[in-house]
Design brief:
Largest sheet of chain A: 6 strands, parallel
Number of strands of chain A: 12
Number of domains of chain A: 3
Shape of chain A: elongated
CATH architecture of the largest domain in chain A: 3-Layer(aba) Sandwich
Helix content of chain A: 40-55%
Oligomer: homodimer
CATH class of the largest domain in chain A: Alpha Beta
Strand content of chain A: 5-15%
Radius of gyration of chain A: 26 Å
Low-confidence stretches of chain A: 1-5
Strand order of the largest sheet of chain A: 2-1-3-4-5-11
Mean pLDDT of chain A: 91
Chain lengths: ~350, ~350
DNA sequence: TTGAAAGCGCTAACAG
DNA sequence: CTGTTAGCGCTTTCAA
């Protein structure tokens, strides 16, 4: 019945309706304080009446901004990132920005695709959660504001946010000691990984501080996957004696450890206490629930987004590197040593 | 040392360099077939030399398109969605589109925010994974191409993609029967939920087909959370006799079931077999690994994205509703009935 | 096949 | 405080 072609109202429709200039409408909307309360009211009324919504493409072209941020992840099916992304997303959306997520899988082809995207001026800023830059040195000249988080990027000078990995690992190990455990194992992540490096250091800090002997026989290695945790379990089982407790560099490996041990009839935590790191979604859901280190993930995302927005607004941030404290979460996978 | 201010090269820089008009450059890039091989080569050379990358905002303004799609999720920290998103993302990126993810948490305020976003012309299409529309009826007049997936939207006529829920649930139940189980329990999802409805129907189909009596005493209810699965375990434990097997409407509840049962000394699968639905990331990681129904999640995402792109291109899709088959994944949480 | 020119919708000088 | 005006970078008639 309504045959008018529904062309979208533009700013000049609003101006016409309100009997003023487009410039004033634009100001009333973007910088209300530069306009009398009266005009503002009229404009708002007109906007509502006509159903006007600004065309972002036009605004972007004009202002040479996009109000869009790109977050680069190595793997967004990794549950670890979801809460961080929420922090990012909420902060950004509250400030009128939108977020595009690049799931690169560390695949150079995909990275190049997104690099192109950045160069095309489609984003105002970049959040790097993947531990490396995706722009080549030459492309980097374009200098899009960038913040890295979680995993530090070697040889890069981006502002950076991460958890206090070393200190947290120390705390967890100290907690295991406080439970009365003497022989505390550790499952390493990939030895080239920055996080593994920090956490392993924290583990050793705690041993030193407790005057416990660092014993290489208690150390195994994995690659952050559950399977590698299971392999580590096998490795421990093949040794003459099981540790009292084992601290895995991340939760997936802790889960693998539990599963591998259970399969061999060793029960957790009765026979051996297990702890992880990250508090991923399923750490609590696991059977048994896993004692772990909870990173302030949401907060990491929020802070990183805020920092990036500051950068975009041209304010240089006070600190270029922020370390956020984490929290121990004690669950059933750890228990006091038998006082036999 | 390089003091030239790095203004981004525009199409007219390319034109000047190549000694031709901007129109021809534009054509050489967008519709190469409308230009001689020779000019094309020159243009490409110029583009490379100058490092030209088209400004998308300008293109969008001119063409009134954005090459951006919005995916609306109720909760993107829900691992179930990650693989679907991958299918979507890969398909879209391959076609030169980018993806924005709206994490609404079913919060009307957030939904409104994104509705505004859509209306502002920032997206060419919408993918609804949240089981409801986020545009009001009136806003809907704007008619942005839309496809729904996973959860059907009541009273909406969007093209839709989902898993054959009913048939899959029937298969799983039949499998449990084939294992020799007679008393097969079922943990329901929220009774108003479409998925629960279908799966419950499939469960009953299988019983009927196997001439097993449908027994209300074997049915409990939950809300898809792990905690509700634990509560269901309690409910079963308080009954005079445990079922031989229990089929939960999703994996989280299956996990809760296992944990609740284990805590009471009932071992899975020895004492009772447990099956779930979805094959979320951690179904395999669980202790024990969970027998479940694996939806073709990546494919669901791909098909939905393709369908949406068709819609955007103005091709009406052949089918408005696609049901994809799922697959049974047998793991250690189910085992044959003791042939005592 | 190519070029000239208009204009997408908006914002930001600048002038009043 | 408000209006006039130019133009962001691109695509797309229209004419040559």
């Amino acid at each position: 019945m309504d045959q008018r072609l529904p062309r979208k109202p533009t700013i000049s429709d609003v101006a016409r309706w309100a009997g003023i200039s487009t410039a004033t409408v634009s100001r009333a909307l973007a910088t209300p304080e530069k306009v009398t309360a009266c005009t503002r009211a009229i404009v708002l009324e007109a906007v509502r009446k006509i159903g006007y919504v600004p065309n972002l493409a036009a605004r972007n072209l004009r202002t040479n901004k996009t109000r869009t941020i790109l977050a680069v992840l190595p793997d967004f099916s990794n549950v670890f990132f979801s809460r961080i992304l929420r922090g990012i997303s909420d902060t950004l959306v509250a400030r009128g920005y939108s977020l595009i997520i690049a799931d690169t899988r560390n695949d150079p082809a995909r990275e190049a695709q997104y690099a192109e995207f950045i160069l095309a001026g489609r984003v105002d800023g970049i959040l790097l959660l993947n531990g490396r830059s995706i722009l080549t040195r030459r492309q980097g000249r374009a200098a899009v504001p960038t913040v890295s988080l979680c995993e530090r990027i070697p040889n890069a000078r981006f502002p950076h946010i991460e958890t206090e990995n070393r200190e947290s690992a120390r705390m967890m190990t100290a907690y295991l000691v406080s439970l009365g455990h003497k022989n505390i194992g550790y499952v390493r992540g990939p030895i080239t990984n920055v996080l593994e490096h920090e956490r392993f250091a924290g583990y050793k800090d705690a041993l030193l501080h407790s005057r416990l002997q660092y014993n290489p026989a208690l150390i195994t290695s994995g690659d952050f996957t559950l399977e590698s945790g299971e392999a580590a379990a096998e490795a421990y089982l093949s040794k003459p004696k099981l540790p009292d407790a084992i601290f895995a560099c991340n939760d997936e490996m802790a889960m693998g450890l539990i599963r591998g041990l259970s399969a061999a009839g060793v029960t957790v935590p009765c026979d051996v206490s297990i702890a992880g790191f990250d508090d991923i979604e399923f750490a609590e859901a696991y059977n048994p629930p896993i004692t772990t280190v909870r990173q302030a993930r949401r907060q990491i995302g929020e802070r990183a987004a805020e920092l990036l927005l500051q950068l975009i607004d041209g304010d240089l941030p006070a600190e270029r590197e922020i370390k956020l404290a984490a929290e121990l979460v004690i669950r059933k996978s750890t228990v006091s040593a038998r006082t036999s």
